[in-house]
Design a protein that fits this description.
The protein is α+β, with helices and mostly antiparallel strands and about 140 residues long. The protein is built from two helices and nine strands, in the order βββββββββαα.
Length: about 140
């Protein structure tokens, strides 16, 4: 299957986060195909293997946005996450195929988690995220 889209962002794999704080980042959406494509962004917040929040991230107040063929767009923005010690997943959905074509994620850790686990906290959270990601993307229970 051809690559129908790619999403990247400027966030690290793990981020110290306070519940309710905004997370600012820049997204880069690439359409490497030969036709214009419509995409949507859906965020999921996962805690202990359970999706605790899921929402569409609007672009210019719209659910769907177009990226021209052979083009990359930059989308600056922010999202407020009311949880900590979670994983924030951002899914890039492509309209024509009705599928998630790419995903980025960041482990949101609290100061308490960092204090308890020390330097292994980001590794543990990312490992947990990697174990859960297939279930989430394949439509596991919500």
């Amino acid at each position: 299957m051809a690559n129908l889209g790619e999403i990247l962002w400027d966030l690290p794999q793990s981020l110290l986060h306070n519940a309710g704080a905004e997370i600012s980042c820049s997204l880069y959406i690439t359409n490497s195909t030969s036709i214009d494509r419509e995409y949507t962004l859906v965020a999921q917040v996962v805690k202990n293997g359970v999706v605790v929040s899921e929402f569409t991230v609007p672009v210019d107040s719209e659910v769907w946005f177009t990226v021209e063929a052979q083009n990359t767009i930059k989308l600056p923005g922010s999202v407020k996450v009311d949880y900590t010690d979670t994983v924030l997943i951002l899914n890039l959905g492509e309209k024509q195929s009705n599928t998630v074509v790419d995903t980025v994620s960041v482990a949101l850790t609290s100061q308490n988690m960092v204090s308890i686990l020390g330097p292994v906290a980001p590794v543990l959270v990312v490992s947990l995220m990697a174990a859960m990601l297939p279930k989430i993307l394949l439509g596991g229970s919500r």
